[in-house]
Amino acid sequence: MSSELETLLAVSRAVAEGRDLRATLDRIACEAAHVAGARAASILIQRARDQPFDVAGAYRLGEAYQIAIERPTHSATRQPGPSWLAIEHDTQVVVEDVRTDTRYRPWRRVARAEGYRGFVSTPLRDRQARAIGTLDVYRAEPGPWPPDQLQMLALFARHAATAIQTARLIDHQRQQVHALRRLVATLEEQRHEHANRLHTIAGLIAIGEPEKARRFVDSVAAGQDEVRRRIGERVHDPTLRGLLVAQAAIAEQRGVTLRVAERSRLDGLPPGVDEATAVTILGNLVDNAVDAAAGMPAPRRRVIVTFSSNGRKMIWRVRDHGPGIPAEEREAIFDRGVSGKGEHRGVGLYLVADAVARAQGTITVRPLKEGTSVTVSFPRRAQVAAVSPDQKG
Question: What tens digit of pLDDT does each residue of 37-53 get?
Fold first, then answer.
């Protein structure tokens, strides 16, 4: 028991040190496998309600098995697997032999290929007792699981849940800082433009052209009023309305027209999305769309933002007429550090993807004949952690 205690203390230190989440979860999976005498282990994080898991940490998990978890076949989605059952019933699911236990039927083929015979799935719960994933261990031999091993796995599951929650809290704080910086940068851009306009007015007056100065002021005011009116008619949330008005002015300085589609309507933010998160999502998507359009010929310097909803979802779409995203880069653009803008510019879209996932939404990138369309869909109602019987395994 002393070796198990040392292992648990090592895991506790890894969580407390707050290092890279993947490395911490890999360490927990490794120690869990050793304590249970298992061949492999994985830590799964629950995605949105109707989607599979993500493998967030693993120890010697076979590549084929990981693919089966993250991209399950149609046959594996027709009945809930043991990990979903562990979440649904908030209890460990213990499988003594994967070849005979009916709960493991969707995964028998890939388990046989990997040499797995025994299996335990332990639910991960946050401080509000909501399911966020599972700790799964895979043993080469069939047979009963000793109670002390099951207790240790439950302790490791709690450590994994703590590590995930800590990482999410840090990322949320990073989002808030990022949103604040964005707003400050937007105000700074506007300050520069206002200064340029004041210099223009002062110059016209200095050379004895007060009438031209007046017409210049009138044209600027009319243009700003029209932008505010059009956006204000469609976007009723004050934070995003202000953000879009400011970004429209900045886009104009770069020769890009930013507008909100005529049939759009946004009355409020989706459940689980606060103002800082909304600024992070929409601000980054609009920024990237404007960047893409700015280098195009004049007719294609356009960005269109659309807000819509139906009975189940709230949808935000940002469409540009830029050069598009190469097919080989499309799946990786939301990974941390990936950017087409140069070094250290790949954080924004990572934060977008993370913020959307927190709100249990989905994000889709669609190539167009001219440009790219990015669609974010949020559930209209907050989703509960419980899993319905028809969900994936």
Answer: 999 999 999 875 556 78
